[in-house]
Design a protein that fits this description.
9 helices, transmembrane helix, mainly alpha, transmembrane, 2 domains, membrane
């Protein structure tokens, strides 16, 4: 394993965890004035350089995901200020590196770790295979039945929407017809609109421009009849 050149001793691990606790506490305090993100930047740089100087590489997916995920979570307002993400991340990374280093010194320890990892991968792959085997393909009859059911539902929904449109249009035409009949009884649309606008202008709900336009339309219609 050319993963750790110098490695992490017990003193360094304890010191890292204490520094992580300090950064989490400081970020919690600065979070009240919305400045906790500054601590995240300094903490990320500090631990990255610290681990690199101790020979730890972040090219492994677990380490990269743990460190990068902690950095992203700490940048989230309120959530990053409350959760002790740096402490949890640094503790996991340091102890994981220490355990692998100790096991690597034991005869056959590295082989045992490799075998355990391979067994976990095999179990995961077997679980996926079993799940795929439990999935039974849909028969043609069931597929046709589901497709016909969806088609019937779509036809019902389309028919319902068509009826709703027809009802709305019918109500609209009835209101239009009633309005036209009212206007005709009153002397036509222009006279109805003129008198209505005059009434609105009298009570302040219409301005002078609307009144003049209504008067002009009525005069033009009246002159065209003559």
């Amino acid at each position: 394993m050319q993963d750790e050149k110098k490695g992490l001793n017990n003193t360094t691990i304890v010191l890292m965890i204490c520094v992580a606790l300090f950064y989490d506490a400081l970020q919690w305090l600065l979070g009240f004035i919305f400045m906790g993100w500054l601590v995240t930047i300094f903490a990320g740089l500090t631990f990255y350089v610290w681990f690199k100087t101790r020979g730890m590489s972040f090219m492994k997916p677990k380490r990269f995901a743990t460190f990068g995920g902690s950095f992203i979570i700490e940048l989230i307002p309120i959530v990053g200020d409350i959760l002790p993400t740096w402490t949890a991340s640094i503790t996991y990374l340091a102890l994981d590196s220490k355990i692998k280093k100790v096991v690597g010194k034991i005869p056959g320890g590295e082989m045992a770790i490799t075998a355990a990892n391979n067994k976990m991968i095999r179990n995961k792959n077997m679980a996926q295979v079993n799940n795929m085997q439990r999935l039974t393909p849909m028969s043609k009859d069931k597929f046709d039945e589901r497709r016909n059911k969806q088609k019937v539902e779509l036809d019902k929904r389309t028919e319902s929407e068509r009826k709703e449109r027809e009802e709305r249009y019918k109500l609209y035409e009835e209101r239009r017809q009633k309005q036209r009949e009212t206007e005709e009884r009153y002397g036509g649309h222009e006279k109805y609109n003129k008198d209505l606008t005059d009434l609105k202008y009298k009570y302040g709900t219409a301005d002078k421009k609307e009144k003049d336009l209504a008067d002009l339309a009525y005069k033009y219609k009246d002159s065209s009849r003559n």
